[in-house]
Amino acid sequence: MKISALGKEQILILGAGREGLDTFLFLRKQFKNKKLFIADQKEIRELDLKTRQILKKDKNNEYFGGKNYLDNAKDYSVVIKSPGIQMKKIRPFFSKTAKFTSQTELFFDNCPGTIIGITGTKGKSTTSALIHNILIKNKISAHLVGNIETPALSFLSKAKKKDYFVFELSCHQLQFLRASPHIAVFLNLFPEHLDYYKDFKEYFAAKSNIAIHQKTNDYFIFNPKIKELKNLAKKVRSKIIPIDPKKYKSVSAAIPGLKAITHMDNLAAVMEVGKILKLSNEQILKGIRSFKGLPHRLERVGKYRGIEFYDDSISTIPEAAVFALDTLGDRVNTMILGGMDRGIDFKKISERLVKSNIKNLILFPTSGKKILNGIEKKELKRFDVFFADDMSTAIKIAFAKTEPGKICLLSPASPSFGLFRDYKERGDLFKKYIKQYGASKSKK
């Protein structure tokens, strides 16, 4: 949908979070005197201070919040829906003729530049940030947008044809997208968000929109080891490029510690993007060498009282926790696991724990017990198992039980919800209590 077409429509911005606010601010710049409507399950007093102040200052908007936030839904001809709001729950409230779109779709339909889209169950944030860093270090005009916490529409008014937009795309942003990026990267696929989607098939269908609408002059970079992605590659019209880490062994060998930043499959995907953009190996390496990594992704917190601590709070599925253990090796002595149970299978992490040298398991509810139940009784004897309902308790146990010279790893293999607001709060509290309880005898 073209932005100019919105001028004649009665628009509802559905969702007043970070992306909803960005949409409102963008539309206000485009249509200075147009009445804009916003609806959210939260009452206006529950919104963050910045959003409340902006809406209060703007005299030409109307906000609907609380349990009756969709009472006037049939009045709108266009609905700009924020990610994560389930269509099946809201669709009956709107007229049959209402057009649904999203910030992502508006950006795709109106962006004059080149979009590089990255998705996958895990690793998409780091891969997106790494690609962006490579472009910036080679003086290419590039912007990092999307699910990585920078809403895209704020860039649209100044976007130029020469600009590249590295767009991290979540399943929610992709679900109803009717366009695909010029370069699409699909890193991996594991069961996740099964509390939101009907089943794994529906989750994959949402993700597939990253490539399904591509044209013949576009590129699709995918992991051929995953059956679903291999089948998707047969359906797309674009030029397909399978990820092959063996092609880039020399690159990974040239950068010590690279494995702690990104999976080698993801590195190969990054290299392929660089090749499409006609960058040399040395140009790509320049961007990789200067990349510092992202918070909460196998981030070394430091050494306190002789113990090394690593924050991998972004680990919300078993495969991520397995990767963390494979990367850090046998020095992991204590591991903090568990969180919200979304009904996924924890067999992979339970099996990997048995093969590890870990002595102490600190478990959060509710999935902590499920991970434990996946370990056979005869194997359980070699673990000291502790349960914690908060991060403060977990860190006190970690300091008391972890051997000096060894590693304590937070890699929960589960979402944070229930005990924590999100993975960032979980990771931030991990760091806070490490520094608080380890301050007196700390060495970084």
Explain what the structure shows.
Strand 9 (183-186), helix 8 (200-212) and strand 10 form a beta-alpha-beta unit. By secondary structure, the protein is α/β, with parallel strands linked by helices. The protein has 18 helices and 18 strands. The chain folds into 3 domains: 9-101, NAD(P)-binding Rossmann-like Domain (Rossmann fold, 3-Layer(aba) Sandwich); 108-289, UDP-N-acetylmuramoyl-L-alanine:D-glutamate ligase (3-Layer(aba) Sandwich); 299-443, Mur ligase, C-terminal domain (Protein-Tyrosine Phosphatase, Chain A). The chain has helices at 18-30, 49-57, 87-90, 103-110, 124-137, 153-156, 171-174, 200-212, 227-235, 249-254, 264-276, 281-289, 318-328, 347-355, 367-373, 377-380, 391-401, 423-438, and strands spanning 11-14, 36-40, 61-65, 78-81, 99-101, 114-119, 142-146, 164-168, 183-186, 219-222, 239-242, 299-304, 307-311, 332-337, 360-363, 384-387, 407-410, 442-443. It starts with 10 loop residues before the first strand and ends with a strand. The chain is globular, with a radius of gyration of 23 Å. 37% of the residues lie in helices and 18% in strands.
